[in-house]
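Field reference: sequence -> structure
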Amino acid sequence: MADSAAKRQTDSGPDDLNVEVKKLKPDHENGRQEAESENILSAFKTSAVLNDSAREKTIFIHGKVTDQDAVVILEKTPIRQDSLDELFSGSSLKLEMRNDIYSTYRLQAPPHLNEIKTTVVCPATEKHVKKYQRQESFLVEETAEDYQSITLAYIQKQSFSMQWVYNILEKKAEADRIVYEDPDPQVGFVLLPDFKWDQKQVDDLYLLAIVHQRNIKSLRDLRSEHLPLLQNVFQKGKEQILQRYKLPASQLRVYLHYQPSYYHLHVHFTKLGYEAPGCGVERAHLLTDVIQNLQSDPRYYETRTLCFPLRADDGLLGKFKEAGKL
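Structure field:
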């Protein structure tokens, strides 16, 4: 219920499969999907800018593609170290100002080094539009009783679909994006890149471990019996990232969200220096802390008060207000 920019839906409610600007065409011979270039934005008509960030180089736009509502997220891709030589030699410079030893220029990079990652949500619902709109946030203190009477009741009533998650676990979708799988039904998981990461550099590395068990909604459901699962995700996730991306465990931030963006247990792996959306203390719980807490108290997350941020338009925030908790 509150993550950020260009990923499925990590800010509020269940994740949707946001897709980059490409058309997916079924390949009936091998059962996979192939990307086919297509400028679906040529017909996009802008209605409003929902949010933007000069610091993060992102902008969220509401509009229409033909007759369907859509949200488009534009995000400047990071400058890669391995492209610097080509960037310097293949770009044009236009002088803007020179003063003593200082000068500023407009640099026009080659097109393939000047890409904008584009995520399209179409057709977009009113919830999608509100999700990406700039909103105030409020910190909620949820007791164990609040979880049972307010949060759990809200989750069950919403009936958030987890089918997209099951599609990944069953290899019906995104099978080619999975970088590692432990197929064990009790302690196994799949590891795949988050959509915010373009996989071209490790500075903003972001992967998700989605567990095979389907009866663990969030941190609240974790008990000491789940320690083997959590330890397996933690250990094997770190090993695979070291093997594949040469990034040691000492440079990883491994954590869970509460509230999560979707109610199927998943673990975030990001590079320590990358300020990933939702990695702040209000929402992120380090997996090492979670493991230690469950080792000391098997019912730790069932009984303790948990704090988390909710946006002003979040339905769950409304339920807490109705109950007189805010």
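Note: Residues 1-36 have pLDDT under 50 and may be disordered.
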